[in-house]
Each structure stands twice: as structure tokens, then as C-alpha cells.
Write a structure and sequence with these properties.
- The structure is a homotrimer.
- Chain A is mainly beta.
- Chain A has a single domain, classed as Porin (Beta Barrel), CATH 2.40.160.
- Chain A is built from two helices and 15 strands.
- Chain A is globular.
- The relative contact order of chain A is 0.12.
- Chains A and B meet through β2 and β3 of A and β4, β5, β6 and β7 of B.
């Protein structure tokens, strides 16, 4: 079981294929497939029948990561091919590129990225879909997440004399989401601080949902994200249908992960606000920024290794 | 020459690339390209001119197959990128996923699949495009085939004391074809029986069109498929434009393959019926289920090995 | 640094991954990513502000090339996944296939290709995007290039007793560009002659923009292309929106590359004409063939190796 945080390339892979040439080039080739069969049942008075069968390839991803020239230059490319992944359930422009980013490792505590990847937003979004407890993320996530964006990313680790560790993450990005065209001169600014008072989780467990590692001592991570997306043109900033005008969106996210002896608790609070969330066109139609707040909490217990 | 039946992952590959790690992981990476230049000539009175040139990449497929954890868990993924493969000749939603299925081998005679793959329908459809005699499948196939679908598949081999072998194949699937969204609560049920009275063909020759193997003794396979697609919403069930309402489609397919000393005969009969095939919308437009029947027969002779 | 001319498969690769099986099969797997952040500033009276930020994955390509059966049969497949690469900035049909061509080497001086690839048109277009000096090609190129097409390609090298070398290149193609459907019976004919009076450039330097090789002696290549695209249905022949009727387009291209001790000069002249460039529909709307001419000239100096 490899834990992925979707925040840098993986240099050790237990599944998938790894190619290397001296220390000049490394490529890991991996794929992920999630097939799903389910049904939706809606209680309508006396009837609790099956309303819909949902049977489909929910996720099919192809991933290339590794480094070029030197381990300091890492890349991470993820292509996605299912209908939902391509954004063809909701839109009509096929979007196969999920991640396409180059990382440069400045030193042990600092690395920067340039390209398209997940913003340092709410924890559940940054956790890779392969490490979720449920088949999909929460409804709150779908409304308020910062999702992916294109820009410059920075990741800094602040070590202290005690066991406590602080992670600082930031991004300056287009604010218009995956594979956006050039639209206007508004950018998006995201900053995140994570405090791990009892030190690092085993195997990056702060970014996987279950306590697969059965932490012997309690581990805690508390995160807070602030984001300002200037002149955004979509109802959720990086996601959603187009607005009739541009708006500035402000997001506040607070989340925490706690793990201890097989128990895992994850909770996150997300909110978005905008000064004037409603936009209109000349015909009087209305489209609005999704403002408000949401909470998502999980409790989990691993039975055994 | 590798024979593929598109009904399970290939564990031996002569072309393409094979990666393995102990017996924990195997990935074959292969591609198939079919470039085509042709012309259509239509006889109109005195004129037998060229009507259209058709010059294009007809098929371009990338395939990953192998196993994970154990050879009992096989996967088969096929992505397609040409315009026709993506369904962009007839529709406007790009559909790169052709196959994405996980197989579990229960024992030597029984394996099951979960995901998207070809239904056990008419023989020519299940024969991989690399093993056809002509560049495309028949017109009858395009109207009446069951094509691909998402669901649960089962394959059982019944061996007898004589040389005769029976294959039982079945599927419970969404009935709405490749990469469908959740639509309604109707499913599709497909059952197929194949009788091989003289035993197995060499190198899976019952699922390739020419007798590449020059069978020394006569070999015969007779197949019969029954399918009921409940609450289908497309004119051909798994294929075709949308109907204005849902209908239940019933299909009967009978086919046979005979091979002997370089000679090959393949024949198939397909029919589809529906109680009330015509659907209308409020504006009075009509869309109908493609009902009727078709026959497709080939005779071939290999000149030499 | 590998120089690519996009005109045949690469059999030696310094970057990327190479698989081979005896001399029966070779596959190189490579990718190219171009991430871009920029801004457009438009001077309007007193204001020189930033008009737009452009932040996106501009190019993301996956390439497979090598040979099958024998080094005489080479293939070259390039898939592209960024929004611009998929033609989704300007159109609404996803076009992931850029190149899909099979080459046959007749002898040391002659090889032919069948499939989709770049036409032997203006030099800057044939230079691979990884070997450009600027991030994008010229505006003249975007209006007058012959781009990619599907058809039969021939490449002949004429060696002389002196150092002079002549290259003859030709193609008979559909004339309708990448991944076109069958439209009408018009074809496109392209012929190109290149004269290299002082012999071959080091490392195919006539098809890379900077003089990375610091040519010790002056090297020159002069090219001239003539093209007739019969019954074309797009405003630029192989590119552009659809016309209301078909037209025959004639193109003349003259270009040159000169390199000497780190200096590089590239210049190209392109023109397109059509007897009756304007097409109308019944509603009186107008769409026209892009006729006219353009010039693109670069001067470059490498500072050091």
C-alpha cells in the first residue's frame, strides 16, 4: 500500500513499473482503475424501489512520474480517461490532463512546483482517490473545494527543537481551474499552514484516511487554508459553470486529522464568501457564486493489519 | 501472430512489451494502429467516378493488460484515440475507454469479470479487430451487435468425456453501452452457449477469422446468444442515438465457425425485436428501435503458412 | 539534446525509455510537457496594464516510436492531451492523434511513409516544438502552414560528387488535415526540394532553430515547396473552420536555414492563393480562404555550449 499525497512525485513505487537510467532519468508508469456498480434508491411514500443503476468505469488514470536530469527535478503527470474524469458528465470539453507539474527541490525543507496540480486546500481533496475511505468525496467537498489549478506552488517544512513540525504551503495560480484558457488578469492566492504537534505521521498518514499504520503514539495534524480568487468566472472559482461576470471569492478552510492505534478521525470545515455573489445577463438569467459553508467528518477504525 | 479473443487478459505476448515483478505484477503494453486510404465509387447512370476519398487513422489503440497481486487477478484496459474510436464520427462525447475490466480466475474452468468489455454476442464482434479478414465488420453487425457494456461477466468451460466442449458465457450489464451515465433501473441480461463438438481450435482459432493454423482435423463451433435489454434508451440498446422513451429489446443470435486445412467458414444470424419499437416526442418526431434481422457469411482460404 | 525533425522515427534516444526485443521490436516511450505562465499587455492610450494572464499546460505529448519485425518498418505515434493540442481551443472535436505513421525504408536514400504526419511544408512547422527558439511558432505560420495531413509520403536523398546534397520530399494526402472524415474526392499534392550546397548539418541542425552544434564551416539549406490542395473545405486547407463550398488552394513556400559558429538565421516566405476565395451560404454569410503571403525571419546566437 503506497500512500500518495498528490503533492510531489513518488520516487519509490511498490506497484506499477519503474524505469531508470543511471541517475539521469526515472519514470514510473502506473494506472488506477475504479469500476463501480451501484444503485440509487429513493424513498417516495410507500415505495422503496431502485431508481437507477449506476454501472460504469468511474476512474481510469494513467500516471507518469519520476525525474529528469537529476532527482532534484521531479515531474508528475496524470491523465484521466473516464467520462467523469474527462469532465464530460457536466461539461462538453474533454479534459484528460489532471496533473502536469514539474517540481524543483531546493533543499530538504523546501520544494517548489510549476504546472497544474491540486491546490493546498481541504484535506480530503488532497488525499488521493486511492486512499479515501468512501468511494467518493463528500458533498461539502464538491461545493467548496479549491480543486486543481495551474500556477506556482511552494512547500516548506519548518522543523522545531521539539517533535512539533509545521508545514507551510502556498500557491499563486490562475484561479480558473484545470486546463483553463486565458480569460482575464485575475489570479488566485492560496496559503495553508499545517501544525503537527506530535511529529510526522508514519508513511504520510496525515494524507490517507484510515490508520493503516496503527500509530503507536497519537498523531495530529491541524490545517488552515486561506484563499482569495480574484476575478473568478466560475461558480466555484476553479470549478462549476460560468458566471455572467467575474467575482472575487474568499475561502476559509480548517481541517484536522487524528490517528491513534487504528482509529482515525478526519474533520474539515469549508466556507466561501463573495461580496456580490449573484450575476445576471441581459435576459435576466441568474448564475451565482456558491457561497456558504460545509462540514465533513469521518471516524474510522482499522480492524487489523 | 497472437490471437486475441477480447475476453480475458493475455498472459503471453509475442508482440509488445512485457513487464513483470516476481509473480506479483505483470503489465503488457501494446498498441495497434490501422491506417486506411480508400475511395467510395458510386455508380450513377453513365458515371463510375470516385465519390469520396477516405484517408485516415481508422484505429489507434493502446492496451495495458496483465495481473496484480496474483495471476488470478487479471486486468485488461484498452484506450482508443482515433476519431471513429472515440465515437466522434457519430456523437460529440469523446469516449477513449473501450475496455476496463478486472477478471478473477475461480478455477481452470471458470472465471468472472467486472467492468467494461465486449458482451458475449455475435462472433464477429467479439473477434478482435486485429483478427478480422476485412478492414471492417459487416453492416449486419453494425445494426444488430450487442457491442460493449459495463457489468458482471461469467465464463464457464464444460468439458465432456468425449472431445466435445461446451462454453457457457453470461453477463448482467447496464444495457446502455460504453461509458454510459446512470439512467434508469433497467438492466441487460445476456446468455450464450457455444458447442465445439470436435474440441478446441488451435490457438483460439474459433475467435479469429482465417484458418491461420491449418487445422488438420475439422473444427466447428456453434454459438447461440439470447439477450434481453430492459428499459433501453438507445436505438440499438448499447449503441445508437437516444430514443424518446425506454423500450425492452430482445435479441437472438446464432453463429458458427468451421475450419479445416486452411478453409474457414463463418456465418452469423442476428435479430432484434421490441414490442413497440417506435418512440415519439411531443413535437411528433420519431425515433425507433432498430428491429429486424441480418445475416453475415464469410468463406476464406489460406494460401500457405 | 536530441534533435527531432518529425519526419521519421527515432532509433536512438537519449531521453525517454527504450524497449527492444532482439531485432524484432523496438519501442521508445517518451513524453513532452510545456507548462506556460505569461501575460498579455495591451497599450490602450495611457494604460499599459496586464490584460490577461495565460497560465496553462500548453503542450503535453506522449510518443511511441520504434520498429516492428525489422528496422526497415518504423512507426511513429504521437498523442497529445492539452486543450490546445486537442484542438479544443478553437473547435469542439477532441483530436488526440497528432502523428500515426508507418515508414518503410527502401534503401539508404529512400523511405516512404503511410499515415498521418507533418507535410513537407514550411521549415518552422516541421521543426519539432522541442527545438523552437520561441515558445510558439510565428503568426505567418499559423495562417499559411500546410500542417499535418493523412496520406502517402516519400523522402529521397540525392547525393552528388561534391559536398552538395539535395532532398526531395513529396506527399499525396487527403488535404483535410488531422483526423478528417471522408468528405469529397479532392486530394492534396505537395512537393518540396531542399538544396544543401555545403553538405549535411551536424545532428540534423537544418531542422532545429539554434546552432547548438556550433558549425565549424558554414552550412546552408534552401527549401522550396509547392502544394495544390484540390476541393479543400477548410479556410486554410488542412486547418481552419469549414468553408461553405470547396475550393482549390495553391501554396508556394520558400525558406532557408543558415548556421555558422553559433549563429543561426532562418527565414521563410509563404503564400496561398485560390481562384475564388470567398464562399457564401444561402443566408448570405461569408467564409473565405485565407489567401495572401507572410514572412518569418529569425536570427539567433548561441552564447556557449
Amino acid at each position: 500500500q503506497t500512500v500518495e499525497s498528490d503533492e510531489r512525485a513518488l520516487l519509490n513505487v511498490d506497484e506499477g513499473i519503474k524505469f531508470s537510467k543511471d541517475s539521469l532519468f526515472l519514470m514510473n508508469l502506473r494506472f488506477r482503475m475504479q469500476n463501480r456498480a451501484g444503485f440509487n434508491s429513493i424513498y417516495s411514500g410507500s415505495n422503496l424501489g431502485i431508481e437507477q443503476f449506476e454501472m460504469r468505469v468511474r476512474r481510469l488514470r494513467l500516471r507518469l512520474d519520476g525525474y529528469v536530469l537529476s532527482p532534484k527535478f521531479q515531474y508528475y503527470i496524470q491523465l484521466a480517461f473516464s467520462k467523469a474524469d474527462l469532465d464530460l458528465e457536466t461539461g462538453d470539453i474533454a479534459q484528460p490532463i489532471r496533473d502536469a507539474i514539474l517540481y524543483y527541490t531546493v533543499n530538504d525543507n523546501f520544494y517548489i512546483g510549476f504546472g497544474q496540480s491540486k491546490l493546498p486546500g481541504n484535506r480530503e481533496r488532497v488525499i488521493s482517490s486511492g486512499n479515501l475511505q468512501f468511494a467518493d468525496r463528500s458533498i461539502a467537498n464538491s461545493l467548496f473545494t479549491l480543486d486543481r489549478d495551474f500556477g506556482i506552488f511552494g512547500y516548506y517544512t519548518l522543523r522545531t527543537k521539539s517533535t512539533a513540525i509545521f508545514l507551510l504551503k502556498g500557491a499563486i495560480s490562475s484561479g480558473d481551474g484545470r486546463n483553463a484558457s486565458a480569460i482575464n488578469n485575475g489570479l488566485s492566492f492560496t496559503g495553508r499552514l499545517e501544525a503537527l504537534p506530535f511529529g510526522l505521521f508514519k508513511n504520510s498518514g496525515d494524507y490517507s484516511e484510515g490508520d493503516l499504520e496503527f500509530e503507536i503514539k497519537p498523531k495530529l495534524s491541524i490545517g488552515i487554508t486561506l484563499s482569495e480568487n480574484q476575478k473568478a468566472v466560475r461558480t466555484g472559482g476553479q470549478l462549476g459553470p460560468e458566471l455572467f461576470g467575474s467575482r472575487t471569492l474568499n475561502s476559509l478552510i480548517v481541517d484536522a486529522m487524528f490517528k491513534y492505534q487504528g482509529w482515525g478521525v478526519m474533520s474539515e470545515y469549508m466556507s466561501r464568501s463573495s461580496r456580490d455573489p449573484i450575476t445576471r445577463n441581459d435576459a435576466g438569467d441568474i448564475r451565482f457564486v456558491v457561497v456558504g459553508h460545509g462540514v465533513n467528518t469521518h471516524l474510522s477504525r482499522m480492524i487489523s493489519k
